[in-house]
Amino acid sequence: MRQNRGLLLKLHNSEYFIGLKKDTQNSFSFPAFVEKFFGNKINKKILNKIETFLIKENRCYLEDTIKRFNREYFNENYNWARFKRSYRRFGSLSSKRNINISYRLLFAPKKIFEYVCVHELAHLKEFNHSKRFWAHVQRVMPEYKQYEKWLKENGHTLTIANNLKEVACCDKNDRYFKSIRGA
Ligand SMILES: [Zn+2]
Fold first, then answer.
1. Range with the largest mean pLDDT of 15-19, 154-158, 166-170
2. 127 CA to middle of ligand 1, Å?
3. DSSP E strand stretches across 85-157
4. What is the mean pLDDT of residues 165-177?
5. Residue 75 within a domain
6. Contact yes or no for 115/144 (Cβ under 8 A)
7. Helix or strand or coil: residue 127?
8. Ligand 1 centre from 99 Cα, in Å?
9. Residue 50 counted as domain residue
10. In this structure, is residue 145 part of a structural domain?
């Protein structure tokens, strides 16, 4: 059985295998590969492709999560919920009631992702960070302070490069990014 060397990208709800093209399989050590393709600005193009892929793949997952928490705890109207490529903020609510969630939360534990969804849903009730706002959050997640703390301490680790692992993989059922090229 031929082995395909590649990278495993781990999300909290799934993992993806990024296969390296055959001609590049032996050209790079893993750290060199990550540095070459994910570590700096030159690699913007590849990062962009992976981001686009992850956002598309997980659109329903986000919509379902928001819908579920809204139905159960908030019962508010919103326009849409979408993953964004934001690096500074993990979530935001626009004045048009659009919920934006950073796709980087796919790299965080599921609870953290859900917390940010709940946080933005609570803004549908209170468009500020008042006591009343936090009371809405607390009603759903009494332990929310530990998630805020987690994000402050670990938010910077939620990047594609930090969540890759080198694997030698031969499972045909694995998913491949079609357009990732190692050259
Ligand atoms: Zn907020």
1. 154-158
2. 8
3. 91-93, 98-102
4. 57
5. yes
6. yes
7. coil
8. 11
9. no
10. yes
How wide is the angle at C-alpha 79 spanned by C-alphas 78 and 82, nearest 5°? 105
- Does residue 91 lie in a domain region? yes
Buried b (16+ CB within 10 A) or exposed e, 79-117: eebebbeeeeebbbbeeeeebbbbbbbbbbeeebbbbbb
Kindly give the distance from the C-alpha atom of residue 10 to the centroid of ligand 1, in angstroms, as a whole number. 27
Q: Which conformational region is residue 19 in: left (phi greater than 0), alpha (psi within -120 to 50 degrees), or beta?
A: beta
> pLDDT at position 22, please?
58
| Cβ atoms < 10 Å from Cβ of 75 | 10
What is the number of structural domains in the chain? Answer: 1
Q: What is the CA(120)–ligand 1 centre distance, in A?
A: 6
Span 67-96, pLDDT tens digits: 999 999 999 999 999 999 987 899 999 999
- Per the structure, the complete domain to which residue 68 belongs is given by 59-157
CATH of the domain at 123: 3.30.2010.10
> What is the reported pTM?
0.84
One-letter amino acid for residue 44 of the chain: K
